[in-house]
Amino acid sequence: MKIIVTGSLGNISKPLTKILLSRGHAVTVISSDPKKQTEIEALGATAAIGSIAAVDFLAETFTGADAVYAMIPLSYTEPDLTAYLRRMAQNYAQALKQTAVKRVVVMSGWAANLVQGENVEDVFDTLTDASITIMRPASFYTNFYQSMDLIRGKGLMGKFLALRYSGLWALLKRKTGLLMGNYGGDDRTVFVSPLDIADAVAEELLLKPDGKTIRYVGSEEMTCNEAARIIGTAVGKPWLKWVLLSDKQMLQGLKMAKVPEKLAETLVAIQAVMHSGKTLENFHRSQPKMGKVKLADFAKEFAAVYRKK
């Protein structure tokens, strides 16, 4: 099969490309970074360098493809995340319709259909002649990398959360080893390894269900504090806690971190839905098969990176 993989050589797309190549498929990887071409070709894939913002480029790349894996990279500089996601989804849909690709696997998220205005999955409903699968993975293990500085006690939640408000900065100075968000604490959630997502996408690309289907993907379920303890133990901080903030505190912190207002509201809304338990409820309702990679496995990789910095 000729398969198009978007997402350059990211956490999902790189292992996905390796899986597909190992099974004898012809793979073209789309990347906006010309510097990735050599690495893509070294894997045995074809590099297509261009932007998913360009419909003509997408249509040219999709021509003759048997299947396409379509993902939209998040942009934290876009003032209106919803408008950006919908615009990119429409680009994909237009190019897929022009080229009559019959099998499409779309990356979404497990909260996408629960946050008002954030679900762009309906854009692909226009592809009435194609078999579409929407992937809804849970919380990525790799999101913990965004909290590495905060775990060290430097007062950051990835690149988004400023903590100089509501006494939290004073708390952080007294007590290092914290994770923070407007979901956390003893909230139960599902985490997922990008490797397990790649396995699931590879499996879906070779299937051809009728119409549109939805597949949830997860690796392990636990409370946020249990996850914090696993990560903390791996880096020598077994007391690591995941502090639950209010929506108001989280929104204030994001705004102080200069995150655009609409984007900040979207990020808070996504975490609020996770805190409500609705994402977990939908996940359980779908009864997905859990992946193989456990958080303890990822924690070893996280600790290795943590110690190098």
Automatic annotation (TrEMBL):
InterPro entries: Ergot_Alk_Oxidoreductase, NAD(P)-bd_dom, NAD(P)-bd_dom_sf. This is Putative conserved protein YbjT. SUPFAM superfamilies: NAD(P)-binding Rossmann-fold domains (SSF51735). Residues 7-202 form the NAD(P)-binding domain. It comes from Mucilaginibacter xinganensis.
